[in-house]
Write a structure and sequence with these properties.
The chain is mostly helical. The chain has eight helices and no strands. The longest helix has 18 residues.
Length: about 130
């Protein structure tokens, strides 16, 4: 398997976006790829889920501009015409935020979701309970 044929190669711009925002995203990314051998490389969905968990942990460390950029980026992923990318952002990132964050953490993060991502988060949150 060639690395460029995997999600790590095909969707590198999505991965690099997060890595450029905070060093803990890079650590999270490295934790996802190093436990695996080249026979199993994590999918974009898996990596976005890890980035969501990192977002919860470092949310207070991020400056306002980066928070806005991250959630604008998430919105662009949610509304992407490529169903694979849209699903990865909805299921990987948004569902992980909703499922993993405490109520207090979620209430801090929620205002940064935009139109479609907020709609998805609200629907998933109501489904969750």
């Amino acid at each position: 398997m060639h690395l460029m044929e995997t999600d790590l190669g095909k969707y590198e711009e999505y991965i690099y976006f997060f890595i450029s925002k905070h060093k803990k995203y890079f650590s999270s990314y490295m934790e996802q790829i190093f436990p695996f051998d080249m026979q199993y490389i994590p999918s974009l969905l898996w990596i976005l889920s890890s980035f969501a968990n990192t977002t919860i942990k470092i949310f207070d460390e991020l400056d306002e501009l980066d928070k806005k950029k991250i959630f604008e980026f998430v919105e662009s992923g949610v509304i992407n015409i490529d169903d694979y990318i849209s699903t990865a952002f909805c299921t990987g990132f948004i569902e992980s935020i909703v499922n993993t964050s405490s109520k207090k953490e979620y209430e801090k993060i929620k205002p940064y979701f935009q139109s479609k991502s907020l709609e998805y988060a609200n629907n998933w949150n109501s489904f969750k309970f």
